[in-house]
Design brief:
This protein has twelve helices and two strands. It binds fe (ii) ion (FE2). Fe (ii) ion binds next to helix 4. Fe (ii) ion (FE2) binds next to helix 4.
Length: 256
């Protein structure tokens, strides 16, 4: 969990990246966009389940900032090893990193992730959030690109490709871009691979921080009375049957 001060500091880092790396014209539009949704995005989780990564208030911005930092560092590694760095710009790299998961915000009216209302799912499945059914389905990259274009924020072909394929081959839909065997069908830039590596690295680090300490502690044993006794089973069944009005249904369940 992050403190209010950490959430504020992360938001400042997020905005500084836009100021520093995005050129005039687009910068103002991007800042206006993020100011419009500031309250939502600042406290958004990066995922709805604890099993995923950064599923806590402020987790989204913390993750995005890490992806920006990892992308810049990965870029240096690729350059040192001989990748052609003339095929994309630093602005394209950072713009793609900043906006790669934007589709997680939902649409203009509604957030994608809202607090979980089902206590059982919250307690047993670690789902502190749930999907908001008011938001029609779209993949994260598709929704993110839609949100950008619907707010007049243009993106380059490289940025479109990087945002679209940032999940790499974890998303089958990316096969058409990333599994091509013909040289002319392969991406003409390493940008999508650099962004994917940065995202993978950030998510892995966030997983380790959340889960490795838990694995070091002994696993709690299941409560002894978890399994219903014969008597408890019978009274539960009788109670359930008494609530059924249909005789057919009653007979059916009575045989179970
Ligand atoms: Fe991500």
């Amino acid at each position: 969990m992050l403190t209010a001060e950490q959430i504020q500091a992360n938001w400042e880092e997020f905005c500084v990246n836009i100021h520093k790396y995005i050129t005039a014209g687009r910068k103002e539009k991007l800042l206006a966009f993020y100011r419009k949704y500031e309250e939502r995005i600042m406290i958004m989780p990066a995922a709805h389940k604890k099993e995923y990564h950064n599923s806590f208030p402020g987790g989204y911005v913390e993750h995005v900032n890490r992806v920006v930092r990892c992308a810049i560092k990965q870029c240096q590694l690729w350059e040192e090893e001989g990748a052609d760095m003339t095929t994309f710009t630093v602005e394209e790299l950072v713009f793609s990193a900043i906006n790669h998961d934007l589709g997680k915000m939902g649409n203009e009216e509604h957030e994608s992730y809202i607090p979980q209302t089902d206590k059982w799912r919250k307690d047993k499945l670690g789902e502190d959030y749930m999907f908001n059914k008011q938001v029609p389905f779209a993949s994260v990259p598709d929704r993110g690109l839609f949100m950008l274009q619907s707010h007049g924020i243009r993106y380059t072909f490289n940025e479109m490709l990087a945002i679209q394929t940032h999940d790499g081959l974890y998303d089958e839909a990316n096969s058409k871009y990333l599994k091509a065997f013909m040289p002319e069908q392969k991406p003409r830039t390493s940008l999508p691979f650099i962004l994917h590596q940065a995202d993978l690295m950030a998510a892995r680090i966030e997983f380790e921080r959340e889960w490795l300490p838990k694995f070091k502690n002994p696993v709690p044993t299941q409560a002894e009375n978890f399994t219903l006794t014969k008597e408890a089973k019978k009274s539960t069944k009788d109670k359930a049957l008494s609530q059924l009005e249909s005789k057919g249904l009653k007979d059916l369940f009575d045989k179970l």
